[in-house]
User: Fold this.
Amino acid sequence: MLGLRRRAILAFGAGATLVSMTLAFATYAVAHHYLLSRRQTSSVIRTMANARFVQQELASPNSIIPDVLSSLATAQGTQSLLYRHGRWFSPSVSIGHSYVPSSLIEAVAAGNPAEQRTVIDGAPAIAVGVPIPSIGADFFQVRGLGDLQQTFGTLGAVLFGTAIATTVGGCLLGWWAGRRLMRPITTVATVATAIAGGAIDRRLPVDLDRDPDLGSLSIAFNDMVAKLELRIERDARFASDVSHELRSPLTAVNTSVDLLEHFRSSLPPRGERALDLLRLEVSRFSTMVQDLLEIARMDARAATLDLEGISIDEFVGRIVARRGTHVPVRISATAAGSVVQVDKKRLQRVLENILDNADAYAGGAVLVTVDRDSSGTCVGVEDDGPGISPHERERIFERFFRGAAAGRRGTTSGTGLGLSLAAEHVRAHGGSITAENRLEGGARFTITLPVIGE
Amino acid sequence: MGARILVIEDDESIRSALSMFLESEGYTVADVENGEEGLVAFNQRPADIVLVDVMLPGLDGFEVTRALRSASDVPIVIVTARSDTHDVVAGLEAGADDYVTKPVVTKELTARIRALLRRSTMGPLSDHVVRIGEIEIHLKAQVARLRDDELRLTRTEFHLLCALGENPGWVLSRTQLLERVWDYDYFGDIRLVDVTVRRLRAKIEDDPSKPVRLVTVRGLGYKLQP
Assistant:
């Protein structure tokens, strides 16, 4: 199915062709007929006049017929012939009576003036015959229509040319009209694409005076987008609001659990175990709420970084040391002592999440590396756990993706959000994070941070 | 420890849980459910530390902090809902010494309280009067004077002055100040340092916008000019 524009062009072009061709043909036909009949009429009148003249001249006995014939005032290309007493007379030898159609000769011989169209040497001509009974002669004149033919040719060419030009003009008009028609549709398409791409605050311009039809479409469209925007905002706020509301009850629960710790000695063994369970689950719940809140914050705000110049090796070293697991930290010569601009809180979360992940799924990290070159800083966390399957590698940074551990709560407090939060924080720095398997077994997570305004 | 803590918190569960917990830690706790009652209670019987939630009905936490601050240098810890919005800075500017974020981790809370209850020390100089420029630090009395006028400093501002004054002319980084003054580790919130420096400058500088006594050393930290 052809597009709107093509159809407009075709319609206009076809319409223009139809009209102009019809007009051209009509004009040509009318002109042709008119000019021809006028020529005919004038030829007849001329011939009749000439016939009278001949009659007069030949009334005197001394007249020589060829001379009389040649003295006739005739239009260009007219041949005159006289038939008298069985003999043909003409002004010059070269003209024979074969010029005159036999049917005309018969008609005139019967005593009627007549005219007939004929062809002489391939060119159209008109033959007129007038009987002159008083001298017992039939007078004929044959006139070529070659000049008319030329006129018709020129006329035809001009008309045809005009028709073609009109057709082309029609197509152009169609093209232009199509574009004008398309413009509002193009506007709608552009705005819709922008909105789909995230610019939810875009709207269509509404100008009811200029275009009432488009105006009502614009109003309906804008209304729809506004409602969608509200809905999206509400949805985005929901997770954040819920998590926020949970902070207060969590505080009360946390504090009560800590308070119960004081009474541990007076609890029976089962009471103690219950307290341990409570503590573990509350801790897990608390982490989940924190993670959800953080995710909601990331979605809501732009990537505003709270940059601070830190000594990267000291930073990483302290984070690792804090965990008390004695994981070796290997710092390259280029990284030692170098000051890097980072968002401290975010980077802390990134490293801790990756280390937590290593603890939960790979038995703990075995090495942390810090490297630096002209393009940025590189921090790596390696473990010698089961590694990452190819299928997992793509999805490991997705929210709530827990891989093989999904469905098993077990002893981990994993929400599935840790790595995706880490990835978002790294991305906010303009950096990248990858997970791959080491040659010697286990996995390696690499964070690359580009140089920021140093 | 026997110190008195005033808890101003409208959420009943949090209020009673916190009060019970702090009591089990050895503190004496008075608790109220809104700002007005808090101010009345403090006037009747001043506490050693005040814990106030920023979101209260009626008088909000910031206003309570400002009111308390205008009459006393009692250490104030605000309880905020979010740590990344302006709540923290607003609370610090209003006069708070530190903050904890909900959900409150009791270990952190007790650490904050302990840090705020310490006396300021300056190494072996504990009984002396230390003079730095026109500033005098009287460690025994835990007060400071500028050109003979007693400075009304909060506990934290005094801590900060002492930390910087221990080695006049030496630069202390913000991280070092966090550790010395607030007893945080490397990962504390440096906004605490920045806002408290601002507040201290407002009290000891003739022109706080052009500090000459408490000077910033770009990229390194702060120092007290000798």
Q: What stands out?
A: The interface with chain B takes residues 244, 247-256, 258-259, 262, 286, 289, 297, 308-309, 314-315, 318, 322, 344, 348 of chain A (CB under 8 Å). Residues 4-59 of chain A form the longest helix (56 residues).
